Amino acid sequence: MSRPSVRDRLTDAALTLFDERGYEQTTVEDIVERAGVGRTTFFRHYGSKEAVIFPDHDRLLDAVRDRLTTSSHATGLVAVSDAVRLVLLHYLEEGDLARRRYALTSKVAALRDREIASVGRYQRLFREFITDWMGDRTPGASLRAEIMAAAVVSAHNHVLRRWLRGECADPVAEIDEAMRDVIALFAPAGTPQGTTDRSTDGTTVLAFRSDQDLDALLPELRRLLTGSSKG
Amino acid sequence: MSRPSVRDRLTDAALTLFDERGYEQTTVEDIVERAGVGRTTFFRHYGSKEAVIFPDHDRLLDAVRDRLTTSSHATGLVAVSDAVRLVLLHYLEEGDLARRRYALTSKVAALRDREIASVGRYQRLFREFITDWMGDRTPGASLRAEIMAAAVVSAHNHVLRRWLRGECADPVAEIDEAMRDVIALFAPAGTPQGTTDRSTDGTTVLAFRSDQDLDALLPELRRLLTGSSKG
DNA sequence: CATACTTACGGTACTGAGTCCCACCAGGGG
DNA sequence: CCCCTGGTGGGACTCAGTACCGTAAGTATG
Questions:
Q1: Which segments constitute the HTH tetR-type domain (chains A, B) (predicted)?
Q2: A162 and A206 housed in the same domain
Q3: Measured between CB atoms, does B92 come within 8 Å of chain A?
Q4: What residues make up the domain containing A92?
Q5: Residues A64 and A167 in one domain
Q6: CB A179 within 8 A of CB A152
Q7: Taking all atoms of strand D, which protein residues have CB closer than 7 Å?
Q8: B204: which DSSP letter?
């Protein structure tokens, strides 16, 4: 039986020390001393002190990108949902490491910021994909794409955090349900839930601002509801 | 005529140097040399090198928190929309500084990460407020709250970026429209339940979603406009 | 006017992250 | 045998950020 790899020794040493004396109180010097390697070796394996806790985020990001580009068969949000499930599964496979990371990011502000920043990268990826998929024919399409990406990522984070806190037995089932909710949120009402299946678009979304009485507004209201069914 | 304050000299020197030779290529030493002050003084005014570009984010965050806690008169998403408008107006008042910051965050990854992290703080604030406001009676309420917060923040960022890029003449009008869209997105379909906010300046903002005829909606509409704000 | 107290500033020295370079030492062909 | 290559260790360096101390300029108080 061979000794564990240098990389593993480093992660072990780092996480142990982070637990013992806290993240900021642990220097890279401490880590390499416990791991029994040189300081240079640490930075060769992990580009920074933070990176010990966030391993191969880049590779996962690439995997997500690949999944998105090769899944043109599915409609936009469904493809994104698939990619998101990929991310969640990655965390699930990490198992204990993911939970230790969560404990750390909950305490250390710098790590929480880094976590958020890396989430932002996924969101950016999704946004670009959805924007590309929708094409910004209509004004407001890019806004809609952005909100979609944000919603998808939020759903993922929500389920992930529930699992990390141990509040969730079957995260895969929950992510699927959450994704269905998100898709239903953006799908034109009437079609997915089958409440009232009208031909084109039974939904009426109305938003206006006025300082007049309702009765004074009625003609304008009626005009909005009958005339402009925004296509 | 007195010389500009130390703080202003520091920001000027920093931004100029960042433009000239880039962010990473500029040391704090360079900045203080050009500003004609000591190195210690720099860190007294700005806690870090990045903070020169992101001034008083903490104060703005506090302002948003105050606005949220004191705006119990409005329903959840409307209160959040008001707070978001506050943030946007802050950026608009910054004017040139905001644009220079945008140019920098577009190039330097570290700064972009910091920007995203600070946006995450707003989102967290909104999420907590909405969660609190909705109360998680139903399962999935906290997920919904999280998505709402994400959507609101996304809308803000979208309009802000458009303004920063000079693609947008009237950002306040756009943010209001975007917020109406967001509110309409989350208003439940089928039942003409909507949100109203009539306390600001005599104007009434109404947003709802329905698949029924206007005539069928009228009673509910009238209830929203007359009864609900009284309680 | 003199004495304290306060506030802002500058300087020095230090820690710690991250980089660079060079030297070492395996193994694996020629 | 030498050469080449990849992983390693060490030492020196840059730079951000902190701690501490000394000092000059107000400002109140006697």
A1: 4-64
A2: no
A3: no
A4: 55-186
A5: yes
A6: yes
A7: A 6, 36-41, 44-45; B 26-29, 39-40, 43, 47-50
A8: E
Question: In sequence order, what are the residues at sequence separation of 6 or more whose Cβ sits closer than 8 angstroms to the Cβ of residue B150?
Answer: A147, A150, A151, A153, A154, B123, B127
Residues of chain A numbered 180-209 and touching chain B (CB < 8 Å): 181-182, 185-186, 189-190, 195-196, 198, 202-209
Radius of gyration of chain B (CA): 22
CB spacing of A211 vs B205 below 8 angstroms:
no
- The CATH number that applies at residue A72 is 1.10.357.10
Q: Do A161 and A181 have their domain in common?
A: yes
What is the per-residue pLDDT across A150-177, written as a single tens digit (0 to 9) for each?
Answer: 999 999 999 999 999 999 989 999 999 9
Cα-based distances in Å from A70 to A67, A123, B78: 5, 18, 40
Could you tell me what percent of chain B has a pLDDT over 90?
57
Query: In this structure, are A31 and A113 located in the same domain?
Result: no
User: Would you place residue B132 in the very low, low, confident or very high pLDDT band (cuts 50, 70, 90)?
Assistant: confident
My answer on whether B24 and B121 are in the same domain is no
* A182·B147 Cβ contact <8 A: yes
For residue A1, being part of any structural domain is answered with no
Residue A92 sits in the same domain as residue A33: no
**Strand C at less than 7 A from CB of A40:** yes
Per-residue pLDDT at A102 = 96
Domain count, chain B: 3
How do the residues of chain B divide into helix, strand and coil, expressed in percent and rounded to 5? 70, 5, 25
Cβ–Cβ contact B61 with A under 8 A: no
ipTM of the complex: 0.80
Residues B34-53 have a mean pLDDT of 96
> Are A177 and A208 in a shared domain?
no
The residue of chain A nearest to residue B161, with distances taken between CA atoms, is A143
For CA atoms A144, A149, A153, A156, the dihedral sign is: positive
Q: Do A153 and A88 share a structural domain? A: yes
Distance from CA of A1 to the nearest CA of B (A): 42
Is pLDDT at B229 greater than 50 in this prediction? no
Element counts in chain A: helices (H) and strands (E)? 10, 1
SS3 A206: strand
- Residue B129's φ and ψ, nearest 5 degrees, are -65, -45
